[in-house]
Amino acid sequence: MKRTLPALLLLILAALAVPAPAAAVEVKGFEYYHTYAEVKGLIDSKVAARPNIAKRFNIGRTYQGRKIWGIKISDNVGTNENEPEILIHAQIHARERASGELAIAIIHWLTDNYGGGDALGQRVTSIVNTREIFIIPVLNPDGAEFDMSGGTWHSWRKNRQPTPNGLYIGTDLNRNFGYKWGLAGSSGKQSSKNYRGPAPFSAPEARRLRNWLAKRVVNGQQTIKVALGLHSAGGLVLWPYSYTRADVPPEMTQDDHAAYVAMGRELAQRNGYTPEQGSDLYLVSGDHDDFMYHQWGIFTLTFEMRKGSANRYYPTQNELAKDIGNNRDAVLYYMEQADCPYRPAGLAAEHC
Q1: Domains plus CATH for the chain?
Q2: CB half-sphere exposure, 231, CA atoms < 13 A
Q3: What's this model's pTM, rounded to 2 decimal places?
Q4: Which residues form the catalytic set?
């Protein structure tokens, strides 16, 4: 069938609507930070080496078409067992490179130590045998790749989706979730680093996470019980709510607040961070923790990793290794509490 000129123009415009992804080039001296290809390669290598406990998945594609890769780790990994499910996700903000590296370290801890006879191996084996763990190392791969494009750091935060007026690029994905979207702590200014997007879930990456979580609901119950979001760079353990400075707003129970405070303090004792409510740092509306906790009752927490001394979002290899190492006990402890996050507050009898 012969196409008219306007029809051909429409096809060309459609093809040009999504710009070609920027090429990631490792920044000289910072090669220890993973590229998108390296993250996928790591996941593939772990699945190949430990197919009994590791399985690759993805939650969908980004604005520029990249798949958002994850790894499931559990014994009987191909079966959805009746076990507490844990979600760990990182680098929703592109420049927060340390968060993605901690997620990668967690993958190593679980797969490399499973079946080991030492204390760490026994601890990891117990966790993997009794939990289903889903780890998404980079939720914002478009932004992460652009952040190191051309072999230099760009301190890029948002995704790579053009704003409605077409003059700017990027939505802050952690202001784009649906609960209390559009309030203080986000911006409607399209040039802002905290630009929330034109509507809740307007960013495909936020939609992909929401839709994946919705599929985890079985018989009306969310199977993901706890979630850990990894950010940088504040040295903090944060809990909901972030949209309000009220410690216990009407939609939160006193027991939930007590559980969050107790858990936050336990984790902070292990990684050396400061525990506080998210809004104690600053108000944030439309963030992932508030949304997941309110929507499905997922016990959600965020780790803000430490800043680099010379480069806030790009710690040196030694700084990064120290911070990651200081988080191992905290991360494993959190996984161990997934069956009953009320336990640290002494509320297990009432809730578990």
Answers
A1: 32-351 (3.40.630.10)
A2: 22
A3: 0.93
A4: 304
